Amino acid sequence: MKVRITDTYEDMSEAAAEFVIDQIRHKPNSVIGLAAGATPLLLYQKLGEACAAGTVNFARVRTFSLDEYIGLGPEHPQSFHFYFQHNLFDHVNIHEDHVLAPDGMAADVAAECARYGAAIEAVDGIDLMILGIGPNAHIGFNEPGPSFVPETHVVELSEATRAANARFFETPEDTPYWAISMGIRDIMFAQNILLLASGAGKTGALMQAVCGDITPEAPASVLQLHRNALVLADRSAAARLPEKYK
Ligand code: F6R
Fold this sequence. Notes:
- This protein has seven helices and ten strands.
- It is α/β, with parallel strands linked by helices and 246 residues long.
């Protein structure tokens, strides 16, 4: 695992955009896994700007959303479908058929997890997985627990995650209880992983991810075992990392 610390959120997002653009230049038909949430918003904006400027071409790129809330359809403003459409896909020249995501409205969620997991396997894995990190060190919606769940699965969101995400909903009760998430194997099989962390709310989680025990109680810690994982963090998220990372 490599760690790179930037002064600001803006710098972190710029470095992340360069990383993603390099990936697509190197492999124009890259398969990219996408995290939603506040952290990658500026990265996605920068990718849209780069596409408009002609410095990156999404024509052959395929994407897989990392997760989705159960019970929110694509038209719901807090669904990750909606998030990616408005924050990324509307601004890049990606082909509609190249956008894959779990269906949070599927009648049979177990079958939907199996379908989605098979779709990831069918493309021969993900080239670049973009991750955020939860304050409880979750990645995707792989919540802390007694064991890692390898495959795409249904997750009951922890109270900590529901509380952290309540800011996006009108009332705390509106925050979904359930989600579909890629599993740890889906994530760890990616060729490259880029984990973004920004802000003081992530200092503890980032410590656990980078130098804590490798344990399913801190799911991001498993990334220490990945051969091509890069952590990009701004100074405030990295505040508690040991000096050797700074
Ligand atoms: C979102 C996701 C989550 C977020 C994490 C951080 O698709 O999988 O793991 O990356 O909760 O969210 P933000 O960036 O909003 O702090």
